[in-house]
Design goal:
rod-shaped; 75% helix; Arc Repressor Mutant, subunit A; transcription regulation; 7 helices; sigma factor activity; mainly alpha
Length: 169
């Protein structure tokens, strides 16, 4: 076997090229990643299926090394996702609390509007029970109606509130 065949030249230059590529990657990506990248360069070269057609092995290996760095750079840009630590006490609750407050304000507006549109006696019974915390018996005595009538007005008031909410949502 003569030293002038492409395969013979390649085998003769492998140790020197390994050292040269290791130095090349050490300067560009650091000592930790360099050995893996050198191995990847040789794996790409031997996996290319073009070993018998390589005229200048050092130039071919340099091109593979540069392409590998370009691929690595593109991959880093694609994977450039920034992760922020999730603080459950700050992030999740503040958003949910803010949403809850907005929804609660909307509901309160709907309920007030529904109460304003109730018939006067129904509104009075509803306000006495829900806002003043009076019992049905106390309301019946104060208004001069039966407990069954108080129950009727409360059911009517709650149905009007439910209808107002259902209409909006």
């Amino acid at each position: 076997m003569t030293l002038h065949t492409p395969m013979a030249m390649l085998h003769a230059t492998l140790p020197a090229e390994h050292a040269r590529l290791l130095q090349y990657f050490n300067r560009r990506v650091g000592r930790e990643a360099a050995p893996d990248l050198v191995q990847e360069v040789f794996a790409r070269m031997f996996g290319s299926g073009t070993l018998d057609r390589i005229d200048n092995p050092p130039a071919y290996l340099t091109r593979i090394a540069r392409n590998l760095l370009i691929d690595r750079s593109r991959q880093k840009r694609r994977d450039c996702t920034v992760f922020f630590p999730f603080d459950e006490n700050r992030d999740a609750e503040s958003r949910a609390e803010q949403t809850w407050r907005i929804e609660a304000a909307d509901l309160l507006r709907l309920y007030r509007q529904a109460v304003r549109t109730m018939p006067p006696k129904t509104r009075r019974v509803f306000v006495m029970h829900r806002l003043r915390r009076m019992t049905y018996k106390q309301i019946a005595e104060q208004v001069g109606i039966s407990i069954a009538t108080v129950e009727y007005h409360m059911m009517r008031a709650l149905a009007l509130c439910r209808a107002a909410v259902a209409e909006q949502w």
